[in-house]
Give the backbone structure.
Amino acid sequence: MKLNAQSSFEELLERVNMLSIPSSKEGMAEVYLVILTKLIPAATLPVLSELINGKSGTVLLYGQWKNRIIKIQVCYEGDKMSEALAYSLSKKMAIKARTENAESIGLVLHHLNVPEIIQSAITGWTAGQYDLGLYKKAEEQNGKIYQDTLYTYLPKGVNESVARDGISIGVVQQEIMTLVNMPASHKSPEYLGQWAQRSAATFGYSCTILDKVKLTSLGMGALLAVNRGSHQPANLIVSHYQHPDAIKKIELVGKGVIFDTGGLSIKDSKNMHYMKSDMAGAAAALGTVEACARLGLKVEVIAIAPVTDNSVDSTSTKPGDVISSYAGKTIEVIDTDAEGRLILADALTYAVKQYKPDVMIDMATLTGSIIAALGTQAAGLFTKNDQLAQSLSAAGDASGERVWRMPMYDEFNEDMQSDIADIKNLGDKPYAGSITAAKFLEVFTQEHPAWAHLDIAGMGFQPNGFGKSHCATAYGIRLLLKWMSM
Protein backbone atom coordinates (compact mmCIF):
# COMPACT_ATOMS: atom_id res chain seq x y z
CA MET A 1 0.00 0.00 0.00
CA LYS A 2 1.29 3.47 -0.95
CA LEU A 3 1.12 6.48 1.34
CA ASN A 4 -0.26 9.74 -0.06
CA ALA A 5 -0.08 12.24 2.79
CA GLN A 6 -1.58 15.67 2.11
CA SER A 7 -0.37 18.94 3.62
CA SER A 8 -3.83 20.04 4.76
CA PHE A 9 -7.32 18.73 5.34
CA GLU A 10 -8.52 20.77 2.38
CA GLU A 11 -5.98 19.11 0.08
CA LEU A 12 -7.16 15.73 1.34
CA LEU A 13 -10.73 16.63 0.37
CA GLU A 14 -9.56 17.43 -3.16
CA ARG A 15 -8.19 13.88 -3.59
CA VAL A 16 -10.96 11.68 -2.20
CA ASN A 17 -14.69 11.04 -2.48
CA MET A 18 -15.07 9.38 0.91
CA LEU A 19 -13.74 10.04 4.41
CA SER A 20 -13.32 7.49 7.19
CA ILE A 21 -13.04 8.96 10.68
CA PRO A 22 -12.21 6.89 13.78
CA SER A 23 -13.08 8.49 17.10
CA SER A 24 -13.65 7.83 20.75
CA LYS A 25 -16.96 8.97 22.15
CA GLU A 26 -15.10 11.76 23.93
CA GLY A 27 -13.53 12.91 20.66
CA MET A 28 -16.79 13.11 18.74
CA ALA A 29 -17.35 16.73 19.79
CA GLU A 30 -14.14 17.75 18.00
CA VAL A 31 -15.01 15.62 14.96
CA TYR A 32 -18.40 17.28 14.84
CA LEU A 33 -17.16 20.87 15.18
CA VAL A 34 -13.95 20.67 13.12
CA ILE A 35 -14.93 18.24 10.36
CA LEU A 36 -18.63 17.60 10.01
CA THR A 37 -19.75 21.23 10.23
CA LYS A 38 -17.30 22.06 7.44
CA LEU A 39 -18.85 19.55 5.05
CA ILE A 40 -22.52 19.27 5.98
CA PRO A 41 -24.91 22.27 5.93
CA ALA A 42 -26.28 23.17 9.33
CA ALA A 43 -29.83 22.59 8.12
CA THR A 44 -29.17 18.91 7.43
CA LEU A 45 -26.51 18.11 10.04
CA PRO A 46 -28.03 16.19 12.97
CA VAL A 47 -27.21 17.49 16.43
CA LEU A 48 -24.30 15.74 18.13
CA SER A 49 -26.48 13.92 20.65
CA GLU A 50 -28.42 12.28 17.81
CA LEU A 51 -25.22 11.08 16.17
CA ILE A 52 -23.84 9.45 19.31
CA ASN A 53 -26.86 7.86 20.90
CA GLY A 54 -25.06 4.76 22.20
CA LYS A 55 -21.73 3.53 23.57
CA SER A 56 -20.53 2.73 20.05
CA GLY A 57 -21.71 3.05 16.52
CA THR A 58 -20.99 3.67 12.85
CA VAL A 59 -22.61 6.62 11.09
CA LEU A 60 -22.69 7.15 7.33
CA LEU A 61 -23.30 10.79 6.30
CA TYR A 62 -23.13 12.76 3.08
CA GLY A 63 -21.34 16.09 2.86
CA GLN A 64 -20.31 18.47 0.12
CA TRP A 65 -17.02 19.99 -0.91
CA LYS A 66 -16.79 22.30 -3.92
CA ASN A 67 -19.91 20.88 -5.55
CA ARG A 68 -18.79 17.28 -4.99
CA ILE A 69 -20.59 14.79 -2.78
CA ILE A 70 -18.35 13.35 -0.07
CA LYS A 71 -19.34 10.21 1.82
CA ILE A 72 -18.41 10.41 5.47
CA GLN A 73 -18.02 7.26 7.56
CA VAL A 74 -17.64 7.91 11.30
CA CYS A 75 -16.96 5.04 13.69
CA TYR A 76 -16.86 5.77 17.41
CA GLU A 77 -16.35 3.60 20.46
CA GLY A 78 -14.96 3.83 23.99
CA ASP A 79 -14.53 6.82 26.22
CA LYS A 80 -10.93 7.69 25.30
CA MET A 81 -8.87 7.00 22.22
CA SER A 82 -6.01 4.52 22.58
CA GLU A 83 -3.68 2.56 20.30
CA ALA A 84 -5.84 -0.54 20.66
CA LEU A 85 -9.05 1.34 19.90
CA ALA A 86 -7.55 3.22 16.94
CA TYR A 87 -6.45 -0.08 15.39
CA SER A 88 -9.80 -1.75 15.97
CA LEU A 89 -11.91 1.13 14.62
CA SER A 90 -9.77 1.71 11.54
CA LYS A 91 -9.69 -1.98 10.68
CA LYS A 92 -13.47 -2.19 11.05
CA MET A 93 -13.96 0.87 8.83
CA ALA A 94 -11.58 -0.44 6.17
CA ILE A 95 -13.51 -3.70 5.93
CA LYS A 96 -16.80 -1.80 5.65
CA ALA A 97 -15.45 0.83 3.24
CA ARG A 98 -14.48 -1.82 0.69
CA THR A 99 -18.18 -2.33 -0.06
CA GLU A 100 -18.97 1.39 -0.47
CA ASN A 101 -17.64 1.58 -4.06
CA ALA A 102 -15.52 4.61 -3.25
CA GLU A 103 -12.76 5.29 -5.75
CA SER A 104 -10.52 6.94 -3.17
CA ILE A 105 -10.89 7.14 0.61
CA GLY A 106 -9.23 9.53 3.03
CA LEU A 107 -8.43 8.27 6.51
CA VAL A 108 -8.93 11.29 8.76
CA LEU A 109 -6.43 11.22 11.64
CA HIS A 110 -5.38 14.79 12.40
CA HIS A 111 -7.77 14.98 15.34
CA LEU A 112 -5.98 12.06 17.04
CA ASN A 113 -2.64 13.89 17.24
CA VAL A 114 -0.60 11.21 19.11
CA PRO A 115 1.98 9.47 16.85
CA GLU A 116 1.52 6.00 18.39
CA ILE A 117 -2.26 6.24 18.03
CA ILE A 118 -1.98 7.46 14.45
CA GLN A 119 0.38 4.61 13.58
CA SER A 120 -2.02 2.07 15.10
CA ALA A 121 -4.91 3.53 13.11
CA ILE A 122 -2.91 3.23 9.89
CA THR A 123 -1.90 -0.34 10.73
CA GLY A 124 -5.54 -1.22 11.32
CA TRP A 125 -6.61 0.42 8.07
CA THR A 126 -3.93 -1.45 6.12
CA ALA A 127 -4.76 -4.79 7.74
CA GLY A 128 -8.43 -4.13 7.06
CA GLN A 129 -7.74 -4.05 3.32
CA TYR A 130 -7.01 -7.77 3.47
CA ASP A 131 -8.82 -9.89 0.89
CA LEU A 132 -9.92 -13.28 2.22
CA GLY A 133 -11.05 -14.45 -1.24
CA LEU A 134 -7.67 -15.98 -2.04
CA TYR A 135 -9.01 -18.32 -4.70
CA LYS A 136 -12.05 -16.43 -5.96
CA LYS A 137 -12.28 -15.23 -9.54
CA ALA A 138 -12.07 -11.46 -9.89
CA GLU A 139 -15.70 -11.19 -11.01
CA GLU A 140 -16.81 -12.97 -7.83
CA GLN A 141 -15.47 -10.34 -5.41
CA ASN A 142 -18.97 -8.90 -4.86
CA GLY A 143 -17.96 -5.39 -5.81
CA LYS A 144 -15.31 -5.05 -3.11
CA ILE A 145 -12.68 -2.45 -3.96
CA TYR A 146 -9.11 -2.73 -2.71
CA GLN A 147 -7.61 0.64 -1.78
CA ASP A 148 -3.96 0.42 -2.81
CA THR A 149 -3.25 4.01 -1.72
CA LEU A 150 -3.69 5.45 1.74
CA TYR A 151 -4.80 9.07 1.55
CA THR A 152 -4.47 10.95 4.80
CA TYR A 153 -3.50 14.23 6.40
CA LEU A 154 -1.05 14.01 9.27
CA PRO A 155 -1.05 16.68 11.99
CA LYS A 156 1.97 18.95 12.30
CA GLY A 157 4.83 17.34 14.17
CA VAL A 158 3.97 13.79 13.07
CA ASN A 159 6.58 12.47 10.65
CA GLU A 160 5.53 10.47 7.60
CA SER A 161 7.72 7.61 8.88
CA VAL A 162 5.05 7.02 11.53
CA ALA A 163 2.52 6.37 8.78
CA ARG A 164 4.90 4.31 6.67
CA ASP A 165 5.76 2.09 9.63
CA GLY A 166 2.04 1.63 10.28
CA ILE A 167 1.56 0.50 6.70
CA SER A 168 4.53 -1.89 6.99
CA ILE A 169 3.08 -3.58 10.07
CA GLY A 170 -0.32 -3.88 8.41
CA VAL A 171 1.22 -5.38 5.27
CA VAL A 172 3.05 -7.99 7.36
CA GLN A 173 -0.25 -8.83 9.04
CA GLN A 174 -1.81 -9.33 5.62
CA GLU A 175 1.00 -11.70 4.62
CA ILE A 176 0.64 -13.73 7.79
CA MET A 177 -3.14 -13.90 7.47
CA THR A 178 -2.68 -15.30 3.98
CA LEU A 179 -0.26 -17.96 5.22
CA VAL A 180 -2.67 -19.07 7.93
CA ASN A 181 -5.79 -18.91 5.74
CA MET A 182 -4.23 -20.98 2.97
CA PRO A 183 -5.60 -24.54 2.93
CA ALA A 184 -3.25 -27.47 3.36
CA SER A 185 -3.65 -28.23 -0.35
CA HIS A 186 -1.67 -25.06 -1.05
CA LYS A 187 0.98 -25.03 1.69
CA SER A 188 3.50 -27.42 3.17
CA PRO A 189 6.58 -27.26 5.43
CA GLU A 190 8.65 -26.62 2.31
CA TYR A 191 6.33 -23.77 1.23
CA LEU A 192 6.57 -22.05 4.61
CA GLY A 193 10.34 -22.38 4.52
CA GLN A 194 10.48 -20.84 1.05
CA TRP A 195 8.32 -17.94 2.24
CA ALA A 196 10.70 -17.31 5.14
CA GLN A 197 13.74 -17.42 2.86
CA ARG A 198 12.16 -14.97 0.38
CA SER A 199 11.31 -12.61 3.21
CA ALA A 200 14.86 -12.78 4.58
CA ALA A 201 16.39 -12.10 1.17
CA THR A 202 14.04 -9.17 0.59
CA PHE A 203 14.43 -7.45 3.95
CA GLY A 204 18.04 -8.21 4.82
CA TYR A 205 18.13 -10.84 7.52
CA SER A 206 19.13 -14.51 7.57
CA CYS A 207 17.05 -17.66 7.31
CA THR A 208 18.24 -21.24 7.72
CA ILE A 209 16.17 -24.35 7.04
CA LEU A 210 16.99 -27.59 8.86
CA ASP A 211 15.63 -30.37 6.66
CA LYS A 212 14.56 -33.86 7.71
CA VAL A 213 18.05 -35.29 7.23
CA LYS A 214 19.51 -32.64 9.53
CA LEU A 215 16.69 -33.06 12.07
CA THR A 216 17.40 -36.80 12.14
CA SER A 217 21.13 -36.30 12.66
CA LEU A 218 20.42 -33.85 15.50
CA GLY A 219 18.08 -36.29 17.18
CA MET A 220 14.86 -34.25 17.07
CA GLY A 221 12.79 -37.33 17.78
CA ALA A 222 9.68 -35.52 19.02
CA LEU A 223 9.26 -33.41 15.88
CA LEU A 224 9.99 -36.40 13.67
CA ALA A 225 7.50 -38.57 15.57
CA VAL A 226 4.69 -36.15 14.71
CA ASN A 227 5.88 -36.09 11.09
CA ARG A 228 5.98 -39.90 10.83
CA GLY A 229 2.57 -40.25 9.18
CA SER A 230 3.16 -37.58 6.53
CA HIS A 231 4.63 -37.77 3.04
CA GLN A 232 5.75 -34.13 3.43
CA PRO A 233 9.04 -33.99 5.34
CA ALA A 234 9.25 -31.81 8.45
CA ASN A 235 11.65 -28.92 8.76
CA LEU A 236 12.82 -26.38 11.32
CA ILE A 237 12.90 -22.74 10.14
CA VAL A 238 15.31 -20.34 11.83
CA SER A 239 14.94 -16.65 10.91
CA HIS A 240 17.41 -14.22 12.48
CA TYR A 241 17.35 -10.42 12.44
CA GLN A 242 20.01 -8.46 14.32
CA HIS A 243 20.36 -4.69 14.52
CA PRO A 244 23.97 -3.60 15.22
CA ASP A 245 22.81 -1.65 18.30
CA ALA A 246 20.82 -4.52 19.81
CA ILE A 247 21.61 -5.26 23.45
CA LYS A 248 19.21 -8.15 24.11
CA LYS A 249 18.68 -11.45 22.31
CA ILE A 250 15.00 -12.41 21.95
CA GLU A 251 13.90 -15.87 20.87
CA LEU A 252 10.43 -16.50 19.43
CA VAL A 253 9.32 -20.11 19.00
CA GLY A 254 6.15 -20.80 17.03
CA LYS A 255 4.12 -23.98 16.60
CA GLY A 256 3.97 -24.81 12.88
CA VAL A 257 1.52 -27.66 12.32
CA ILE A 258 0.47 -27.13 8.71
CA PHE A 259 -2.64 -29.25 9.22
CA ASP A 260 -3.69 -31.22 12.27
CA THR A 261 -5.90 -34.26 11.81
CA GLY A 262 -5.13 -35.32 15.35
CA GLY A 263 -3.14 -38.27 14.03
CA LEU A 264 -4.45 -41.67 15.10
CA SER A 265 -6.26 -39.91 17.96
CA ILE A 266 -8.24 -38.36 15.15
CA LYS A 267 -10.30 -35.22 15.58
CA ASP A 268 -14.03 -34.94 15.01
CA SER A 269 -14.71 -33.95 11.40
CA LYS A 270 -17.12 -31.12 12.24
CA ASN A 271 -14.50 -28.37 12.57
CA MET A 272 -11.39 -30.14 11.34
CA HIS A 273 -11.17 -27.80 8.35
CA TYR A 274 -10.13 -25.06 10.77
CA MET A 275 -6.94 -27.00 11.48
CA LYS A 276 -5.23 -25.33 8.53
CA SER A 277 -4.68 -22.58 11.14
CA ASP A 278 -2.57 -24.74 13.46
CA MET A 279 0.57 -22.99 12.25
CA ALA A 280 -0.60 -19.53 13.34
CA GLY A 281 2.08 -19.40 16.06
CA ALA A 282 4.88 -20.13 13.61
CA ALA A 283 3.50 -17.63 11.12
CA ALA A 284 3.29 -14.91 13.80
CA ALA A 285 6.86 -15.59 14.97
CA LEU A 286 8.22 -15.43 11.42
CA GLY A 287 6.11 -12.36 10.64
CA THR A 288 7.41 -10.57 13.72
CA VAL A 289 10.98 -11.03 12.50
CA GLU A 290 10.03 -9.59 9.11
CA ALA A 291 8.30 -6.64 10.78
CA CYS A 292 11.38 -5.93 12.92
CA ALA A 293 13.53 -5.92 9.78
CA ARG A 294 11.11 -3.68 7.87
CA LEU A 295 11.01 -1.19 10.75
CA GLY A 296 14.73 -1.41 11.53
CA LEU A 297 14.07 -1.99 15.24
CA LYS A 298 17.13 -1.99 17.48
CA VAL A 299 16.70 -5.59 18.56
CA GLU A 300 18.08 -9.03 17.92
CA VAL A 301 15.23 -11.44 17.35
CA ILE A 302 15.29 -15.07 16.26
CA ALA A 303 12.22 -17.01 15.21
CA ILE A 304 12.32 -20.81 15.37
CA ALA A 305 9.45 -22.67 13.75
CA PRO A 306 9.17 -26.47 13.84
CA VAL A 307 6.96 -27.30 10.86
CA THR A 308 5.08 -30.47 9.95
CA ASP A 309 1.58 -31.73 9.42
CA ASN A 310 -0.04 -34.30 11.71
CA SER A 311 -1.46 -36.94 9.42
CA VAL A 312 -2.90 -40.45 9.60
CA ASP A 313 -0.94 -43.29 8.03
CA SER A 314 0.12 -46.84 8.79
CA THR A 315 3.47 -45.42 9.93
CA SER A 316 1.93 -42.79 12.25
CA THR A 317 2.98 -42.63 15.87
CA LYS A 318 0.53 -44.65 17.98
CA PRO A 319 -0.95 -43.81 21.37
CA GLY A 320 1.25 -45.48 23.97
CA ASP A 321 4.42 -45.18 21.91
CA VAL A 322 7.55 -43.88 23.61
CA ILE A 323 9.58 -41.41 21.56
CA SER A 324 12.88 -39.61 21.99
CA SER A 325 13.54 -35.87 22.02
CA TYR A 326 16.34 -33.42 21.30
CA ALA A 327 16.63 -32.81 25.06
CA GLY A 328 17.42 -36.49 25.60
CA LYS A 329 14.20 -37.12 27.51
CA THR A 330 11.80 -39.89 26.55
CA ILE A 331 8.11 -39.07 26.06
CA GLU A 332 5.14 -41.39 26.34
CA VAL A 333 2.58 -40.34 23.73
CA ILE A 334 -0.80 -40.70 25.38
CA ASP A 335 -2.66 -38.76 22.68
CA THR A 336 -1.34 -38.07 19.19
CA ASP A 337 -3.60 -34.99 19.07
CA ALA A 338 -1.40 -33.39 21.72
CA GLU A 339 1.25 -32.99 19.03
CA GLY A 340 1.97 -29.27 19.28
CA ARG A 341 3.78 -29.63 22.58
CA LEU A 342 5.91 -32.41 21.08
CA ILE A 343 7.28 -30.33 18.22
CA LEU A 344 7.72 -27.34 20.53
CA ALA A 345 9.69 -29.51 22.96
CA ASP A 346 12.44 -30.01 20.39
CA ALA A 347 12.29 -26.41 19.19
CA LEU A 348 12.51 -24.93 22.70
CA THR A 349 15.48 -27.13 23.57
CA TYR A 350 17.19 -26.16 20.32
CA ALA A 351 16.54 -22.47 20.97
CA VAL A 352 18.17 -22.58 24.40
CA LYS A 353 21.13 -24.76 23.46
CA GLN A 354 22.02 -23.09 20.18
CA TYR A 355 21.25 -19.43 20.84
CA LYS A 356 21.19 -18.90 24.63
CA PRO A 357 18.56 -16.14 24.45
CA ASP A 358 17.99 -13.48 27.11
CA VAL A 359 14.23 -13.88 26.69
CA MET A 360 12.29 -16.71 25.08
CA ILE A 361 8.61 -16.57 24.13
CA ASP A 362 6.70 -19.32 22.38
CA MET A 363 3.34 -18.94 20.64
CA ALA A 364 1.07 -21.85 19.85
CA THR A 365 -2.52 -22.68 19.02
CA LEU A 366 -2.06 -25.32 21.66
CA THR A 367 -5.21 -26.26 23.60
CA GLY A 368 -8.97 -26.09 23.44
CA SER A 369 -8.82 -25.68 27.20
CA ILE A 370 -7.60 -22.10 26.89
CA ILE A 371 -10.61 -21.25 24.71
CA ALA A 372 -12.88 -22.71 27.38
CA ALA A 373 -11.12 -20.52 29.96
CA LEU A 374 -10.69 -17.22 28.09
CA GLY A 375 -12.78 -17.44 24.94
CA THR A 376 -11.59 -15.23 22.09
CA GLN A 377 -10.70 -12.18 24.17
CA ALA A 378 -7.16 -12.95 25.31
CA ALA A 379 -4.33 -15.44 24.94
CA GLY A 380 -3.22 -17.49 27.90
CA LEU A 381 0.09 -16.27 29.34
CA PHE A 382 2.18 -18.81 31.25
CA THR A 383 5.42 -17.80 32.94
CA LYS A 384 7.09 -17.79 36.35
CA ASN A 385 8.87 -14.53 35.56
CA ASP A 386 6.82 -11.70 37.10
CA GLN A 387 8.63 -8.94 35.23
CA LEU A 388 8.11 -10.65 31.88
CA ALA A 389 4.46 -11.28 32.71
CA GLN A 390 3.90 -7.63 33.60
CA SER A 391 5.60 -6.31 30.46
CA LEU A 392 3.70 -8.66 28.16
CA SER A 393 0.42 -7.82 29.87
CA ALA A 394 1.11 -4.09 29.47
CA ALA A 395 1.96 -4.58 25.79
CA GLY A 396 -1.19 -6.63 25.31
CA ASP A 397 -3.40 -3.98 26.87
CA ALA A 398 -1.76 -1.20 24.83
CA SER A 399 -1.93 -3.05 21.49
CA GLY A 400 -5.31 -4.67 22.06
CA GLU A 401 -3.76 -8.12 21.60
CA ARG A 402 -4.43 -9.00 25.20
CA VAL A 403 -2.98 -11.76 27.36
CA TRP A 404 -4.18 -13.15 30.68
CA ARG A 405 -1.76 -14.71 33.12
CA MET A 406 -2.46 -18.30 34.12
CA PRO A 407 -0.94 -20.24 37.04
CA MET A 408 2.21 -22.32 36.74
CA TYR A 409 2.05 -24.17 40.05
CA ASP A 410 4.55 -26.99 40.40
CA GLU A 411 1.80 -29.21 41.77
CA PHE A 412 0.69 -29.68 38.14
CA ASN A 413 3.97 -31.47 37.37
CA GLU A 414 2.52 -34.63 38.84
CA ASP A 415 -0.08 -34.80 36.07
CA MET A 416 2.64 -35.26 33.45
CA GLN A 417 4.51 -38.12 35.15
CA SER A 418 4.77 -41.33 33.14
CA ASP A 419 5.30 -44.85 34.50
CA ILE A 420 7.26 -45.93 31.44
CA ALA A 421 9.06 -42.79 30.19
CA ASP A 422 10.51 -39.56 31.54
CA ILE A 423 7.29 -37.66 30.85
CA LYS A 424 3.95 -38.12 29.09
CA ASN A 425 2.33 -35.68 26.69
CA LEU A 426 -1.14 -35.58 28.25
CA GLY A 427 -2.55 -35.78 31.76
CA ASP A 428 -5.46 -38.03 32.65
CA LYS A 429 -7.58 -35.39 34.36
CA PRO A 430 -10.42 -33.62 32.50
CA TYR A 431 -9.37 -30.13 33.57
CA ALA A 432 -6.46 -27.66 33.58
CA GLY A 433 -5.43 -28.86 30.12
CA SER A 434 -3.80 -25.58 29.09
CA ILE A 435 -1.80 -25.49 32.34
CA THR A 436 -0.50 -29.04 32.09
CA ALA A 437 0.46 -28.36 28.47
CA ALA A 438 2.50 -25.36 29.62
CA LYS A 439 4.08 -27.44 32.37
CA PHE A 440 5.07 -30.02 29.75
CA LEU A 441 6.79 -27.31 27.70
CA GLU A 442 8.55 -25.99 30.79
CA VAL A 443 10.46 -29.27 31.08
CA PHE A 444 12.15 -28.53 27.74
CA THR A 445 13.17 -24.92 28.44
CA GLN A 446 16.27 -25.96 30.41
CA GLU A 447 14.87 -23.93 33.33
CA HIS A 448 15.27 -20.71 31.35
CA PRO A 449 14.59 -17.83 33.77
CA ALA A 450 12.81 -15.59 31.23
CA TRP A 451 10.53 -17.88 29.28
CA ALA A 452 6.86 -17.28 28.53
CA HIS A 453 4.34 -19.46 26.74
CA LEU A 454 1.40 -17.89 24.91
CA ASP A 455 -1.49 -20.22 24.16
CA ILE A 456 -3.17 -18.40 21.26
CA ALA A 457 -5.71 -21.09 20.35
CA GLY A 458 -8.61 -18.67 20.78
CA MET A 459 -6.87 -15.70 19.20
CA GLY A 460 -5.05 -16.82 16.06
CA PHE A 461 -8.14 -17.86 14.11
CA GLN A 462 -11.62 -16.54 14.83
CA PRO A 463 -14.58 -14.66 13.31
CA ASN A 464 -13.16 -11.19 12.75
CA GLY A 465 -15.07 -9.45 9.98
CA PHE A 466 -13.28 -10.57 6.83
CA GLY A 467 -15.68 -13.38 6.06
CA LYS A 468 -18.70 -15.29 7.26
CA SER A 469 -16.72 -17.76 9.35
CA HIS A 470 -13.39 -18.11 11.13
CA CYS A 471 -10.26 -16.65 9.56
CA ALA A 472 -6.75 -15.61 10.52
CA THR A 473 -6.04 -12.60 12.74
CA ALA A 474 -2.20 -12.38 12.66
CA TYR A 475 -2.42 -12.21 16.45
CA GLY A 476 0.90 -11.78 18.21
CA ILE A 477 2.76 -9.50 15.81
CA ARG A 478 1.51 -6.20 17.20
CA LEU A 479 1.74 -7.55 20.76
CA LEU A 480 5.40 -8.45 20.37
CA LEU A 481 6.33 -5.27 18.48
CA LYS A 482 4.78 -3.21 21.26
CA TRP A 483 6.52 -5.30 23.90
CA MET A 484 9.90 -4.83 22.21
CA SER A 485 9.41 -1.07 22.01
CA MET A 486 8.37 -0.53 25.63
Remarks:
- The longest helix spans residues 160-181.
- The chain has a mean pLDDT of 96.
- Residues 192 and 208 are 12 Å apart (CA to CA).
